[in-house]
Design brief:
104 residues; 14% strand; alpha+beta; 3 strands; single chain
Length: 104
């Protein structure tokens, strides 16, 4: 059996992708991201209604996604909308659900 030539210093290369996957690994966060891919932008109130969860719960999940750099906010007056911030996430989610990627 061939051994994999691996320099332990290269392990740092895996930190950021692993953190993205960790953030996506919760069903609610995955649902939020999939919804943002489809809808392009959305506010917390709409997500709360769709998910049938308290706003505080949805906000906690959004904060984890923001911390991972997966989503970002856009302000329009008093309204705050969430958008996908990392273009790598769309193809990952499409693969997970066996979907064809939509052209924008």
């Amino acid at each position: 059996m061939d051994s994999i030539a691996f320099d332990p210093k290269d392990l740092k290369l895996f930190d950021e992708p692993a953190n993205l996957l960790k953030a996506l690994s919760h069903p609610v966060r995955l649902c939020i991201v999939r919804g943002l891919i489809r809808k392009k932008k959305c506010n917390v109130s709409y997500m709360q209604e769709c998910l049938d969860m308290p706003q505080s719960t949805v906000s906690q999940h959004l904060q984890k996604l923001r911390n991972a750099g997966i989503v970002a906010t856009e302000r329009s007056g008093l309204e705050v909308n969430y958008v996908l911030a990392d273009e790598r996430i769309g193809p990952i989610v499409h693969i997970l659900f066996g979907e064809e990627e939509c052209e924008s």
